[in-house]
Amino acid sequence: MHPSHHRYDVLVVGGGIIGLVTAWRAAQRGLSTAVADPAPGGGAAHVAAGMLAAVTELQYGEQTLLELNLASARRYPSFAAELEDATGLGLGYRPCGTLAVALDADDRADLRELHTFQTSLGLRSEWLSGRDCRRLEPMLAPGVRGGLRVDGDHQVDPRRLAAALLRAAELAGVVLHRSSAARIETVRDRATGAVLDDGTMITAGRTVLATGSRSGGMPGVPEHALPPVRPVKGQILRLRVPPGHAPFLSRTVRAVVRGGHVYLVPRENGELVVGATSEELGWDTTVTAGGVYELLRDAHELVPGLTELPLVETLAGLRPGSPDNAPLLGRSALPGLLLATGHHRNGVLLTPVTGDIMAELLTTGSVPESARPFSPTRFTLQEQPA
Ligand SMILES: Cc1cc2nc3c(=O)[nH]c(=O)nc-3n(C[C@H](O)[C@H](O)[C@H](O)COP(=O)(O)OP(=O)(O)OC[C@H]3O[C@@H](n4cnc5c(N)ncnc54)[C@H](O)[C@@H]3O)c2cc1C
After folding, report:
1. Is 162's C-beta closer than 6 angstroms to any atom of ligand 1?
2. Digit-coded pLDDT (tens) for 255-314
3. Domains of the chain: which residue ranges?
């Protein structure tokens, strides 16, 4: 065999958090596994806020996704403990809860409706007066009109999650090829691996496409098997609460201001993440004056004191958006090619269940019942054997 030709049971193309968790779980189950990515452990997780917000991110019409989100939220404590044990690296997992607040009468009415919807689904969410919100979070603006206390929506630090997954994958024996896949290889209409930009040829029994927002355009994959995934730009800011300063917020605080979502995620290390815009601008990742202005303006309305804090980072990243905002997990229309993509605004939250589902598929050939609604074939004509 040519020295730059490698053979594995599984090749995962894309080493963001979704590709890495898939590779880690596959290797744990005894499959020889490789990841191809020029910069594994980077991707959208480098930008993301890390809210594990199954309940406060709930939108009308997304009840099916809610079940998966809740299942992953329940998996987080044991998943985080396992990953920390395996690697010795902390994830910054913080079971701190979330407070969603309203700043005017219209927002209050919307939030009341959302509360009714949440409780009709049996979700735990408590309505609080404006005064009670400020009692919980004294830095909130005096004008806060009411809010929802959701004690089950937590947070994790996505950069630390990505670093730990990378380490765990390597410790479990995953081979990292630090190069892009130039194209997926097919033989007689079956995916057989990939050719990388550096000339390496990788042959694999199963190939998993996990290139996030790039998944919709992978060369070599026939048109009908490509996932309908698009980039959704998000700009985000990081402020820093100086050491010795009283904690700014004790939990994630979010609101809808002028129709846009704004959230503040306080980390234990003093970082305060302010996010995020949602823009349909293709591959553009420019941080704009307008984006930063809007985020700071809305965050300032929520927590006026934050304008004193140092602004330490501004970034933009790309969420892998799908037509129904839910992930694509399972077989593609091209035999031998599996998909783990389209996690949109919930990729950090969905990391634990994605690992479980993909490992099950790779080892048994079928996905758990709970994952059936997320089959990529909901957007294509027919499913093929793996
Ligand atoms: C501003 C913002 C805020 C967010 N906040 C949250 C949040 O609070 N909670 C939450 O749950 N989610 C959040 N998300 C979403 C979450 O970050 C994503 O859903 C998740 O990171 C997607 O992971 P992924 O591994 O599928 O894709 P990515 O992170 O995009 O990783 C894809 C990887 O594929 C690699 N790649 C691309 N092309 C190739 C190729 N040809 N060959 C090899 N490798 C390739 C890239 O280098 C990259 O490493 C947020 C996202 C953004 C942008």
Report:
1. no
2. 988 778 899 999 999 999 999 999 999 999 999 999 999 999 999 999 999 999 999 999
3. 5-46+160-229+323-379, 95-153+231-321
pLDDT for the residue 385: 56
Atom of ligand 1 at shortest range from CA of 158: 17
Report the pLDDT value the prediction gives residue 222, as an integer from 0 to 100: 96
Residues 6+ apart with CB under 8 A from 1: 7
Residue 383 or residue 45, greater confidence = 45
Q: Does domain 95-153+231-321 have CATH number 3.30.9.10?
A: yes
- Outline where the chain has alpha helix (H): 17-28, 63-87, 105-120, 130-136, 158-171, 289-302, 351-364
347-359 mean pLDDT: 98
The share of the chain scoring above pLDDT 70, in percent, equals 98
Q: Give the ligand 1 atom nearest the CA of 180.
A: 42
N residues, the chain: 386
Cα separation, 148 vs 102, in Å, equals 9
Residue 47 CB less than 6 A away from ligand 1: yes
CA of 245 to the centre of ligand 1 (A): 33
Identify which of 50, 285, 270, 312 has the alpha carbon closest to the alpha carbon of residue 159: 50
Q: Which CATH class is domain 5-46+160-229+323-379?
A: alpha beta
